[in-house]
Design brief:
globular
Length: about 325
């Protein structure tokens, strides 16, 4: 499909190209923005016509589009994501001089219901970690076949609070042994150092010789020192473990150890933040370790400890007794 530089479609593609090339956004981010921005561009073509310039778009058009999304059955969270993408598009358009101002700023973000994830307790997570040396009978074949690697997966997800995508993106050079830290590349390719706990370090020291032996046996010894930290079981392709495999492994182990059926890698990240907060860590430190751009994102964890706060109040405040 051919597009000129001034059509809705052409301007959408120009924004997406900038996002991918200049800002270095992740493939996931580019795909998400492409879906939302192209969807809105198609709506503008249908409602305003292809001959109308982008400067004619007003906040009322954007509100009407959100109404269409609701009619399609999208949730408030999905509509909010669409609006965020449209705002970014018009911010770029304003910078490029295509529009005088950003009309999306006049559209209120849909209020999303606060869905607080249920996280396993510290005791539950520790029980799982302590049991990984003896794989359960109900685990998936891939998970049961390499318990040393699977312990590393759990230790890094829970011990460092990193995302699944960050976990599989780790290379051998990402582990900074002298600093007792892991160099993580997060969203927007931003890097941060995350403390490496003693248990995670111990799990890595057990796993790494096994990883080396498997790579050499597969004829891929060149990846021993420079390859991916977490490898797949059969050393296929570039040997890097995928996020999908990590999800299957985490769920299989969690179910076999009696945790809830909805446990996934991000659950362990939430558990990291929640348990750190419960043990007295300040939000700024947790924000830094989790790689949150905004403190408001980290503050969601405060909602998870309301019960604890209530207990402290009941036990300590003189007017509560």
């Amino acid at each position: 499909m051919k597009t000129d530089n001034f059509s809705f479609d052409g301007l959408a593609e120009g924004f997406l190209a900038m996002l991918a090339n200049e800002r270095g956004a992740s493939e996931h981010t580019v795909r998400a923005y492409a879906r939302e921005v192209r969807g809105f561009a198609a709506y503008l073509n249908e409602t305003l016509g292809k001959d109308v310039r982008i400067a004619a778009v007003e906040h009322l058009h954007i509100r009407a589009y959100l109404g269409v999304l609701y009619e399609r059955g999208l949730t408030k969270a999905s509509a909010a994501r669409a609006l965020a993408a449209i705002r970014s598009w018009f911010k770029w358009l304003a910078k490029e001089g295509k529009v005088a101002q950003n009309p999306a700023l006049l559209v209120s973000t849909p209020k999303r219901p606060l869905h607080l994830p249920r996280v396993p307790s510290m005791e539950e997570v520790n029980r799982v970690l302590d049991s990984l040396e003896k794989p359960g009978k109900q685990e998936a074949a891939e998970a049961a076949a390499w318990p040393e690697r699977d312990r590393v997966i759990f230790e890094l997800l829970y011990g460092c609070g990193i995302r699944n995508s960050e976990l599989v993106g780790l290379n051998m050079g990402s582990v900074k042994w002298r600093d007792d830290a892991v160099l993580v590349r997060g969203k927007g390719k931003k890097e941060r150092l995350v403390p490496l706990g003693d248990e995670a370090a111990a799990a890595l020291r057990i796993y790494l010789p096994l990883r080396e032996a498997k790579l050499i046996a597969a004829g891929k010894g060149g990846l021993v020192h420079d390859g991916p930290l977490l490898t797949n079981l059969r050393m296929r392709g570039d040997c890097r473990l995928t996020t999908r495999s990590v999800g299957r492994i985490v769920k299989a182990i969690a179910l076999s150890r009696g945790l809830a059926a909805d446990v996934h890698p991000h659950t362990l990240r939430h558990a990291f933040g929640t348990h750190m907060l419960e043990e007295g860590a300040d939000l700024r430190s947790i924000q830094e370790m989790l790689g949150h751009e905004r403190l408001s994102t980290t503050q969601r964890y405060t909602q998870l400890t309301v019960g604890q706060v209530q207990r402290v109040y009941d036990e300590t405040h003189p007017r509560a007794k």
